[in-house]
Amino acid sequence: MASSQSSRAASSSEADDFASASSSGAFCFKRKYSSQTVSESDDSEDAKSEDPVGASESVKTSAIKKKSRLSVADEAVEVGRTASSSSKSSIDFGLYVTKVSGLVEDKQSGQFTAYNLRDIISNHPSKLIESIQFNYLFEIDWLVAQYPKESRSAPLTLVHGSQGASKTDLDVEAMSHEHVNLVQARLDMPYGTHHSKLMILRYADGIRIVAHTANLIERDWHQKTQCGWLSPLLKPLAAEASSNDGDSPTNLRADLCRYLRRYRHPRVGRWADLIEACDCSGLRVFLIASCPGRHSADQLNEFGHLKLRQVLRQFDFGANSKDACLVGQFSSIGSLGSESSKWLTAEFMASLAAGGSPGGGGGGDGSALKLIYPTKDDVRQSLEGFPAGASLPYRQSVAKKQPWLNRFLHSWSASRSSRSRAMPHMKSYLRYSGGSGSPRLSWYLVTSANLSKAAWGSLEKKGTQLAIRSYELGVLFVARQFGLPNFSLEAANAAACISVPFDLPPCRYKATDKPWIVDLAYRDLPDAHGNIWCPPMCGN
């Protein structure tokens, strides 16, 4: 079974995987690694107070015993073991997708660079000296096994937000690894989580930074669509360099060091010192991070959606505004209010639209906003079957309060990367124009942040204060920052081609489509493995 005790944690707060770990009873699905899943819901107060499923660490499921339609070989054989040599543009931008088990090798090639965790850590010829991993969920034994043998005893720091029994489980697992040190992130706001996914890898000749979307548990690297950004090697500055030398034009180094120092922990702060001594001048991406707290005055625009707004305002996307669309793609949805204008089409869309409102107007009706979240049938027909939905924790208690959201929803389709059946755990946001002909992207954000106020922040005190509950982190690609008018999705346009795994334009839900709800029973049709989904206390 892939999940360890440490990954059964965190029942009710914001995150990515639904809590369900039971040592007894039958299951709605047969794959044993999937019968134990974990909770990362995205609802803050709603998840804790109203959802009995989300509030439980151990829940039972019932089963229907049907023969799986896929063989073990179909499900378990990992292919596409090397990144495509033809994915030049992806390597230039540093973007990658994770390998998908059961996907034939030629479908992992083309313009997409595909890595597993071992590839990422070993993607440099010199020896790994030490590393630090920021994440929500860890399976320490599995994680250590992904490191190259010669570096498995190198110092490894894990930054987490686990509390209570889940923290105890993590502490116990870490005891088996003398080189592993744990740092518990401070969560200053109720219902917040440590949700950032960040690696900093120190080699003998420099540092690499990885911002990504996957938990450090085996199942997150199996049959899901995940993505990330891998920096080039950041070499140490010359001894005579001043403290102001070496930052990127986007101030990424300064922003990352500010983020790291918000942890107020010496083990983490030390990494800020190491990064400050590196030459980051070649980086062209922006850092968009969130830190818990109420941010105001000169810190108002440092984090959350206001940081995104501040960066995008530096650019004029007016030429692409008339037919522009804004896309949000995510794996969890928080409580957004009784109507769209409470947050989504007001402050959040104002940040996404910064630099030129879609349609040339205010865009306040949200008509230019397209949100991608899988339907029930997307999940049912996926490689994992219904268990994939455990990582898509949109709950009845939240969904019933915001039926208005359905008019913004679009289904998951990723034929361009052959990942339509690999359910997304990635989160991304972008601006594009050009419709179905040849979409042109002004910017593209890869992040850990789902669609929630806890992740992005909510304005208070007449817009003078931004309240954020969780840690999040992402990187923003703006075409103009790379000297390009737009990014392209066409491999033929290699110089401007950026690797977005899903299809554009997205396809709006059909009249019969329903968003995946994790605590609803689905018994009408079996999944790809012949199983049904019947979570406990589902009420139907």
UniProtKB/TrEMBL annotation:
Keywords: DNA damage, DNA repair, Exonuclease, Hydrolase, Nuclease, Nucleus. The keyword Nucleus applies. InterPro entries: Tdp1 (IPR010347). It holds the Pfam family Tyr-DNA_phospho. It is found in: Nucleus. Substrate binds at K197, K427. GO terms for molecular function: 3'-tyrosyl-DNA phosphodiesterase activity; double-stranded DNA binding; exonuclease activity; single-stranded DNA binding. GO terms for cellular component: nucleus. Its main location: nucleus. Residues 1-23, 36-60 are annotated as: Disordered. The record marks S452 as: Interaction with DNA. Signal peptide: none annotated. The active site is at H195, H425. GO terms for biological process: DNA repair. Belongs to the tyrosyl-DNA phosphodiesterase family. This is Tyrosyl-DNA phosphodiesterase. The lineage of its organism: Eukaryota, Metazoa, Spiralia, Lophotrochozoa, Platyhelminthes.
